[in-house]
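We treat protein structure as text, and this decision shapes the records that our systems exchange. We quote a single record here, exactly as it is kept in our systems:
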Amino acid sequence: MPRSVNAVARRARRKKVLKQAKGYFGRRKNVWTVAKNAVEKAMSYSYRDRRNKKRTFRRLWITRINAGARMHGMSYSQFMGAVKKNNIELNRKVLADLAMNHPEAFEAVVNKVK
């Protein structure tokens, strides 16, 4: 009985990985073993960093709110505590956008909570 190998599926699998490695530098884009390792590493980084992106944006928003609040004589923690106490339903993303792009609107929020 002749040996049976599934060359079609193997080639498809390899083509899929090499397509994902398109644009990589050097042998990473066209040598199977190198490309496979590079794509696996890239996938693990992308999975990790989809979660890290949420953290970094939250840090950015907090920094912007803090800067805006300190211009009006409040710290970030005092400002956020007052916002929660006054039942203002604005999240950090919106508050940061107000502080950055609409300072008069942010000032109105600060005056409301003072």
About this structure: Residues 61 and 92 are 6 Å apart (CA to CA). DSSP finds five helices and no strands in the chain. The longest helix spans residues 32-70.
